[in-house]
Amino acid sequence: MSSPHSSVATPQATRLAPPLAGARNYPAQKPAEVYLFGTCVLDLFFPEAGMDAIRLLEREGIRVHFPQGQSCCGQPAYTSGYTDEAREVARAQLALFSHDWPVVVPSGSCAGMFRHHYAELFHDEPATLRQVEALAARTYELAEFLLEVCRIQLDDRGSPIKVALHTSCSARREMGTHVHGRSLLSQLGQVERVDHDHESECCGFGGTFCVRMPDISGAMVRDKTAALAGAGADAVVSADCGCLLNINGAFEKQQQSLRGEHLASFLLRRTGGKSDGVQS
Amino acid sequence: MSAHADTPAIPISFKRRAHDAVHDAQLRKNFRGAMDFLMAKRAAQFPDGDELERLRAFGNRVRARALSKLPDLLQRLEANLTRNGVKVHWAETVDEANAIVHQIVAAHEAKQVIKGKSMVSEEMEMNHYLEGHGVDCLESDMGEFIVQLGNEKPSHIIMPAIHLNAGQVASLFHDKLEVDYTEDVDRLIQIGRETLRRKFFEADIGVSGVNFAIAETGSLLLVENEGNGRMSTTVPPVHIAVTGIEKVVENLRDVVPLLSLLTRSATGQPITTYVNVISGPRKADELDGPQEVHLVLLDNGRSQAFADSELRQTLNCIRCGACMNHCPVYTRIGGHAYGTVYPGPIGKIVTPHMLGLEATRDLPSASSLCGACGEVCPVKIPIPAILRRLREENVRPPAAEPHHMRGQGSKYSRRERYTWKAWRTLNTSPRLYRLFGLAATRLSGLIPADIGPWTEHRSAPKPAARTLHELARDHLGED
Ligand code: SF4
């Protein structure tokens, strides 16, 4: 079907990822209690973001439970092809959420694991599958939960600032929660969101991909950091700690001053909340 | 046995080629620009997201239905083609397919073959094979012509010469065709066409691919933009079409949505300039067309994919190339780095069936599973899920039953398996996990040994002073 390489038009490179097709139904009432699933990357590298998520939820009048038995959603093994190992880790998480409270996850990709991939892991265990489906139905990504279930109203107390939002591929393509991040930022009166070039493109993290294919992943994160830095933003926020680990590591290596922070920390700080979490 | 300099004992690895490609600034620029252009063209064709989703779901159902009755449809296709006067040949391997083509060529004492674009002929390395038998093959698709002139392989399934910019094509034409150097794209096309025009009339045989083989009517549908496909299939006295067994659809009605999805997804065109429907050789009362039409149906590993309900979805593919256009990996390394006929996301999931997992061991890993491919695929092939599955097949013990794929376990490593088992133990035991979180060297021994690569492009990650588990316990109490 080819025709020769014609002149290359200026692309719509900054075209924003559109909302995901198929709307999710949200409960009419805000719950009194929720579980927080912190995720393993956040646990070790961005614990303050987890605390800030807890504070945001508490400020909405919700009691937060953090099951101490939680570890990892199982995604690293799952995407590496170690399905049996992933299933056992997933099984251990399933046992933690015995009440029917919503499970809030400050990460699009781990929330996506609960909502979409656990069913694949347990497809031939009917009893577990029912449990998995119930969990999927009450799992929310943090930004999604704050906006759609808490119907949060943010009161910006900060000074004018330009912010670039990086959304993870799972947030955009599995959870459709990139739009929630944008909506939350747009509630902040003094915040101007700036869109970076190739906003809808992967940052190159991809779990073990970044160490298995260092050249390709490195090229991707260099492009992503260049786009973020080139967007004229004063701050970079994201609701996924895997991406943040990757992007911040690259910023630091390039000796750039810009750093990404978790959306929860940014929102809490802008609205006068105080984070007593430890800075990493 | 010492390896000759030209034929390294260890083939150049995917990683090595990827490394070279990401450091080739010209290549990066050409692909980024071209992919952005193609993405924008496609996006303009699908302004309504809901309509697109409906159409993709429809396309998926049409393909899934065809595959669900594949053996039956192939029989009907053969019967109806035969009734129309087309000779049908079956080839399990590329060697068999080449031998069939050679027999036809030999029977006609053909010396010159002109080819329309065909990826299956690339799969067969037909040009190389026929040239070895003293037959000249000339590519007539402009992109293929350029690639052949430069002694290269296609870097994209729809746009074979997409890795070159106008200046590079200008130099090539100047060197090989001995014409004045010009970067004027229209002039370059003109030069190419003038060179090709005579060849259509000199060729003994025309070869083409097939976009859809229609069982009910016994016809072969071929889309193209340059008219070279029509020339290749009508001017020479003999036409040989080559295609994969998965290209069959039930009837003409099924073609309508697929055709629309194909051209809009591929080049952002509502329809191609030419849509050829070939339903047999020239009839007694007709003035033109070939006297003989052959169809070679190639398996080449497709049956292996067909046998597994998940992997079978690979065969839904209508070869639009949208997955490569949207792939952040393909955009950065280009088509040649894959070292396979089909590059990009579709190449990663279809080639392991053709060459075995051993020969393609790195391809399933060369993805961040970002999902861009699956999001745009017009027939909804869950490419990321299939890549994950191929990773699983790659790390299963080589002898484990059931055996789904040739080359199973090509990345099987006991060490890595034990690492993941240790990871599992850690993450299923709250006590161990807590200890691990407390340990100063929180990452050592966990991530596969090649963590070194992380720090090539990033500073090393620094674990926080205290874990969220600890902070949350202080704040919320034990839960
Ligand atoms: S896998 Fe899908 S997107 Fe890729 S070439 Fe095939 S049909 Fe097109």
UniProtKB/TrEMBL annotation, chain A:
Alphabetized InterPro entries for the sequence: Cys_rich_dom
Segments forming domain Cysteine-rich: 35-115, 163-247
Pfam families per record: CCG
Listed GO CC annotations: cytosol
GO MF annotation: an example: oxidoreductase activity
Domain of life: Bacteria
Protein name listed in UniProt: (Fe-S)-binding protein
Record organism: Parazoarcus communis SWub3 = DSM 12120
Organism ancestry: Bacteria, Pseudomonadati, Pseudomonadota, Betaproteobacteria, Rhodocyclales
Automatic annotation (TrEMBL), chain B:
UniProt keyword list: 4Fe-4S, Electron transport, Iron, Iron-sulfur, Metal-binding, Repeat, Transport
A Pfam match: LutB_C
InterPro entries referenced in this protein's UniProt entry, alphabetically: 4Fe4S_Fe-S-bd, 4Fe4S_Fe_S_CS, FTHF_cligase-like_sf, Helical_ferredxn, LUD_dom, LutB/LldF, LutB_C, NagB/RpiA_transferase-like
Statement: the UniProt record of this protein carries the keyword Acyltransferase: no
Residues of the 4Fe-4S ferredoxin-type domain: 307-336
Record keyword 4Fe-4S present: yes
GO biological process: lactate metabolic process
Domain of life the protein comes from: Bacteria
Molecular function, one GO term: 4 iron, 4 sulfur cluster binding
Name recorded for this polypeptide: Iron-sulfur cluster-binding protein
Organism the protein comes from: Parazoarcus communis SWub3 = DSM 12120
